[in-house]
Write a structure and sequence with these properties.
This is RCG52628. By secondary structure, the protein is mainly α. About 75% of the residues lie in helices and about 0% in strands. It has one domain (about 1-190).
Length: about 190
């Protein structure tokens, strides 16, 4: 989505040529295949572990870190694999988004029109806010040393990005709509 915004703002005349259905399909397939490979690597390393304790997982869903915590064998190699792969995926994703938005910001600041600047910030602001809200908890959840004190914090983080962010996304993206903003302004003026 950051690449889509980059092309829309930095190369608006080339947008229909660059963002073709074929490119979108290619990006979807790459993401899907990357996710499957990532999952298969974790599952392969998970098969070497034995689980003899309680099968109750202290989490909202069956995540890899939660499974590693109930293992009877030493899961330190698995933790290292999770740290390396999750960290590299997050660093790659975040750096791609930051580079795209840095170029977009430079392009926006070169524009002379206030309306163009406002429209560009409106287009990018919602996505950047959603990405920031989503990646924050993920960084804390997957790229930190394992300890027993952070179990409850992991649950709060996972609740944040599995429940709260999907609830906030429609609100964030609807704030780009002028009618929604006008209705919200009327409501706030009436209550104040």
């Amino acid at each position: 989505m950051a690449y889509d915004r980059y092309v829309a703002i930095c190369k608006p005349l080339l947008y229909p040529v660059v963002m073709t259905n074929g490119l979108c399909l290619w990006l979807i397939v790459l993401s899907f295949v990357g996710g499957i490979i990532h999952a298969l690597i974790h599952e392969g390393f998970l098969l070497r572990l034995t689980f003899c304790n309680s099968n109750t997982i202290h989490h909202f869903y069956c995540d890899i870190i939660s499974l590693l915590k109930i293992s009877c064998t030493d899961p330190s190699l698995n933790y290292l694999i999770v740290f390396i792969f999750s960290g590299s995926i997050q660093v790659f994703s975040i750096s791609t988004i930051l580079v795209s938005y840095t170029i977009i910001l430079v392009t926006i600041l070169k524009k002379k029109s206030d309306k163009g600047i406002q429209k560009a910030f409106s287009t990018c602001g919602a996505h950047l806010l959603s990405v920031s809200l989503y990646y924050g908890p993920l960084l804390f959840m997957y790229v930190h040393p394992a300890s027993s004190e952070v179990d409850d914090q992991d649950m709060i983080d996972s609740l944040f990005y599995t429940v709260i962010i999907p609830v906030l996304n429609p609100i964030i993206y609807s704030l780009r709509n002028k009618q929604v903003i006008d209705s919200l302004a009327k409501l706030l003026k009436r209550n104040v």
